[in-house]
Amino acid sequence: MPSPLINNNFLKTITKMPKVKTNSGAKKRFTFTGTGKIKRKHAYKSHILTKKTKKQKRNLTKVSIVDKANLNSIRELLVKK
Cα(7)–Cα(9) distance, rounded to whole angstroms? Predict the structure, then answer.
């Protein structure tokens, strides 16, 4: 018979490993392609647009792939191996 001082639910919570959580900021900024690459948006498209050319603004609208140098750190934030 278990001791009345120890709660069974308390024992269950001690033995469980903590969940790995996705970074909520990264979740909003990055998406995965069908092949597993990570897509991102360009910076410098939110304000002070009057001094930028039409071509610059048009190219900033397009989505690009995350560079190899940043790939591992972003995958850690998104909890995908």
Answer: 6
Q: What is the pTM of this model?
A: 0.69
Torsions phi, psi of 63, nearest 5?
-90, 145
- CATH number, domain at 34? 4.10.410.60
Average pLDDT across the chain, whole number: 87
Distances in Å between the alpha carbon of 57 and those of 29, 36, 45, 47? 19, 27, 7, 11
| Residue 8 domain flag | no
* Structure confidence at residue 18 as a pLDDT band (50, 70, 90): confident
